[in-house]
Amino acid sequence: MKARKKTAKSHPLFTIGYEQAKPAAVLNELKQAKIGYLHLQKLGTPAEGRAAARTGDTDALWRIYDKHIKKPDAQEELGELVALIKSGKRIALLCYCRDPMTCHRSRIVANVKKRTRVNVDDLVPPLF
Q: CA quadruple 54, 97, 115, 74: dihedral positive or negative?
């Protein structure tokens, strides 16, 4: 009889963008998912990254953000985020961008996945 491998528990992780959504719709999505809010500023996109995003230069955005997330302050907050996820807290990454794949949230998720198993659920609030 073979021994079963113990698999690491997968934790939930939500993302949400509020672009073109009413604030009440965003809050409703968060409430339905039973998620609180915590601001982790150092995981945000730096000004030059936001400027690149506004002009549609996603290559520059990714270069800037990938460099940013390696900084000690961002790594510290990433560690805090991972610890909260592992503790069983229901966490949502919130940003302006509606599409999670063109948002820095996707880069945060990729970094989280390097540290722990997560099931990602991208919440999409209704448009105006």
A: positive
Q: Which helix (H) or strand (E) holds 66?
A: helix 58-68
Residue 96 is which amino acid? Answer: Y
Q: How far apart are CA 124 and CA 126, in angstroms?
A: 7
What is the residue-level pLDDT of the chain in tens, covering all 128 positions? 555 555 568 899 999 999 999 999 999 998 898 887 778 999 999 999 999 988 989 999 999 999 999 999 999 999 999 999 999 888 899 888 888 888 899 999 999 999 999 999 998 888 87
CB 8 within 8 A of CB 115: no
